[in-house]
């Protein structure tokens, strides 16, 4: 544990000032005010023997100092020394009373009898402040035990998956600011690889997640479902989900906050109530919790893969050459060693398991090019999972500027179409978003499968 620097002259000066202030007030009380000599403990409780009370007081002081110093990594250096200055000043002055007067000089009246003094104010303020800081800090702590399936991944990535509203970069900033402990030791390296059985404690109060503010904006929302706990909206392509560097406004959460200001108290300040995210260029369903209870319930459901997501996409190429109707893709994904901004397929032990069921809904011609309409049900939730897996099959999603190898289109033809899950009350629900108008390019005569049914169901749901 890193040592906390101490300016001894400053420490001695402040304690002396507080000590002298208490001594002066007690002298004034003895000369001009009603006072009492309290030979017992605080508020007259316990023994009436001054010697025993002094022994108990010294013992209690030592115990308090030990507890406070054991908590120094939790409360921080600033609060540690404020608490210690108040505690030591009050304790030394009251101990001086016991040696000089045979008891503590009390002159602050409770009711009609003096039971208190300035030194007692110091002590109770110190203990109250310490308790408040500890309580506030504990509320900001997130504690995890690493399971075997999460082992070997970077700790910033691990935390970003576990803590709702915290991106990987936000976790990294907290880690670098000494807001992470692994097995009781401060860990400042975001690239630390977690191991099965590791105890991870993450302090969200170390720094603000973002210096950005979530400002309400009157932007139209396409609300698909709403109850007292949950809001589900259909996000358009091109809209960022929440504010981030370079996108401080015109996001989905700016629009949500305009209509639901009460969400400010749910989750992280920038991502208030947000349960999951979609890429900027992906359209479709996004879940937002309206209560803290719902945030944890649905976040856990996502983490445990109890929410089924169904996507629709238009890909460049004939999907029937890879599979006639259904194909399960299982591979391992990770950062591209040559370009860390891209995800790629890696060898088993070097990547994370990614599994998706793909369904071919039909083939059609678009501007003289062969395209396919594909449905996907991912079983895992890796970054860019669908885009990378389809690209690896030679079927890049139309409009994908990262993995599409120059396959340009008006937008990314990826749509988060359906969600199936249990509500907070235990009822099953299935929601689907309207297909964007641009998806009508796939409604060609050659397609006589589920695509037609999807279009009809969407028209009937309007």
UniProtKB/TrEMBL annotation:
Residues 153-217 form the RNA-binding S4 domain. This is Ribosomal large subunit pseudouridine synthase D. SMART domains: S4. Pfam families: Peptidase_A8, PseudoU_synth_2, S4. NCBIfam families: rluA_subfam (TIGR00005). The lineage of its organism: Bacteria, Candidatus Dojkabacteria. PANTHER family: MITOCHONDRIAL RNA PSEUDOURIDINE SYNTHASE, RIBOSOMAL LARGE SUBUNIT PSEUDOURIDINE SYNTHASE D. GO terms for biological process: enzyme-directed rRNA pseudouridine synthesis; proteolysis. Keywords: Isomerase, Membrane, RNA-binding, Transmembrane, Transmembrane helix. GO terms for molecular function: 23S rRNA pseudouridine(1911/1915/1917) synthase activity; aspartic-type endopeptidase activity; RNA binding. The active site is at 279. The keyword Transmembrane applies. The chain crosses the membrane at residues 9-30, 50-69, 76-95, 115-135. Belongs to the pseudouridine synthase RluA family. Its EC number is 5.4.99.23. One of its GO terms (cellular component) is membrane. The keyword Membrane applies. It comes from candidate division WS6 bacterium OLB21.
């Amino acid at each position: 544990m890193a040592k906390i620097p101490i300016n001894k002259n400053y420490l001695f000066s402040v304690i002396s000032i507080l000590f002298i202030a208490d001594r002066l007030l007690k002298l004034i009380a003895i000369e001009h005010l009603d006072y009492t000599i309290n030979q017992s403990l605080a508020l007259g409780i316990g023994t009436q023997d001054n010697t025993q009370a002094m022994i108990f007081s010294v013992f209690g002081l030592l115990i308090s100092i030990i507890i406070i110093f054991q908590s120094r990594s939790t409360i921080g250096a600033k609060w540690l020394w404020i608490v210690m200055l108040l505690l030591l000043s009050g304790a030394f002055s009251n101990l001086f009373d016991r040696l000089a007067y045979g008891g503590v000089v009390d002159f602050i009246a409770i009711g009609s009898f003096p039971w208190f003094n300035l030194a007692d104010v110091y002590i109770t303020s110190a203990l109250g402040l310490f308790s408040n800081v500890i309580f506030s800090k504990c509320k900001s702590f997130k504690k995890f035990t690493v399971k075997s399936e999460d082992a070997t991944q970077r700790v910033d990535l691990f935390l970003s998956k576990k803590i709702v509203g915290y991106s990987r970069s936000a976790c990294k900033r907290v880690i670098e600011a000494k807001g992470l402990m692994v097995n009781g030791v401060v860990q400042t390296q975001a690239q630390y690889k977690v191991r099965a059985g590791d105890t991870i404690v993450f302090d969200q109060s170390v720094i603000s997640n973002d210096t950005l503010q979530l400002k309400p904006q009157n932007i139209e929302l396409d609300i698909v479902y709403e109850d007292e706990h949950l809001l589900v909206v259909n996000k358009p392509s091109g809209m960022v989900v929440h504010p981030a560097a370079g996108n401080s406004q015109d996001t989905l959460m700016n629009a949500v906050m305009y209509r639901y200001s009460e969400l400010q108290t749910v989750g992280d300040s920038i991502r208030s109530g947000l349960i999951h995210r979609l890429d900027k260029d992906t359209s479709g369903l996004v879940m937002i919790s309206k209560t803290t209870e719902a945030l944890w319930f649905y976040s856990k459901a996502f983490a445990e893969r109890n929410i089924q997501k169904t996507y629709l996409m238009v890909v460049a190429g004939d999907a029937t050459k890879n599979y006639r109707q259904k194909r399960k893709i299982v591979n391992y994904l990770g950062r591209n060693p040559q370009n860390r901004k891209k995800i790629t397929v890696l060898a088993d032990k070097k990547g994370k398991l990614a599994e998706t069921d793909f369904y071919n809904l039909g083939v059609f011609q678009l501007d003289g090019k062969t395209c396919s309409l594909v449905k996907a049900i991912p079983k895992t939730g890796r970054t860019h999972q669908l885009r990378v897996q389809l690209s690896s099959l030679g079927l890049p999603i139309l409009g994908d500027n990262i993995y599409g190898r120059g396959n340009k289109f008006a937008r990314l033809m990826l749509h988060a179409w359906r969600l199936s899950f249990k509500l907070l009350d235990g009822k099953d629900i299935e929601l689907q978003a309207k297909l964007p108008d641009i998806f009508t390019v796939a409604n060609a005569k050659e397609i006589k499968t589920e695509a037609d049914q999807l279009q009809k169901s969407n028209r009937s749901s309007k």
